[in-house]
Write a structure and sequence with these properties.
This protein is an alpha+beta fold. The chain is built from one helix and nine strands.
């Protein structure tokens, strides 16, 4: 009889353990998408409604220089900027950024608006984005992103690149600031430089 009681208690213990493990697994499954959704909303949808949130500080005529190891990496100018300390970012209007390339030379990027994520040291430009090199090459797109950590400029939008008497169209690009290597992800056409400029 004591043997049967012990066996009965063991089965009840196993059932409880089974239900506890099932409950923990269910909570993990439910928690993960919620956590991912929360991160996504913190980053992206919040920016869509940025005009509805009161800025901690509004600045006009901004000039910010980013030095690293005694060398200027880039200079940012903006007509206006709104700082959101809780999000550690600055929303910018009328943006111009000069990038200093590792091997010498400069790139000048302009856009209607932008966001500077201070803690990540990342920037984005939106609206009428243009990048000009010292050689006269021009790049046009609707958006452009930059990461200081990766030393990379990229976009997934349509791009037009004009230089050396040719115009190249594509969708998406990456430009490595260290090596100076430009990769157009999906090149669609190359034609003489006097073609129409339509994104």
């Amino acid at each position: 009889m004591p043997y049967l009681k012990g066996l009965y208690d063991l089965k009840i213990g196993q059932r409880r353990l089974f239900w506890i493990l099932a409950l923990v697994l269910l909570l993990i499954i439910l928690w993960r998408p919620w956590e991912q959704g929360r991160t996504s909303s913190d980053d992206d949808s919040w920016l869509k409604n940025i005009g509805e949130v009161k800025a901690d500080l509004t600045l006009r005529g901004i000039c910010y220089v980013r030095d690293l190891g005694g060398r200027t990496q880039w200079i940012l100018w903006a007509d206006e900027g709104r700082l959101y300390e809780a999000k550690d970012l600055m929303d910018l209007k009328g943006v111009k950024i000069k990038f200093f390339l590792t091997g010498g030379g400069q790139l000048l990027s302009t856009g209607d608006s932008g966001v500077y994520r201070i803690n990540r040291d990342e920037m984005s430009l939106k609206g009428n984005v243009e990048v000009r090199s010292e050689s006269g090459t021009r790049l046009y797109s609707k958006s452009l992103y930059f990461s200081q950590k990766k030393r990379l400029i990229w976009t997934k939008d349509n791009v037009i690149i004009r230089g050396n008497g040719l115009t190249m169209r594509g969708k998406g690009l990456e430009y490595d600031l260290r090596s100076g290597r430009l990769t157009v992800t999906n090149q669609t056409s190359v034609f003489p430089g006097n073609g129409e400029l339509n994104l």
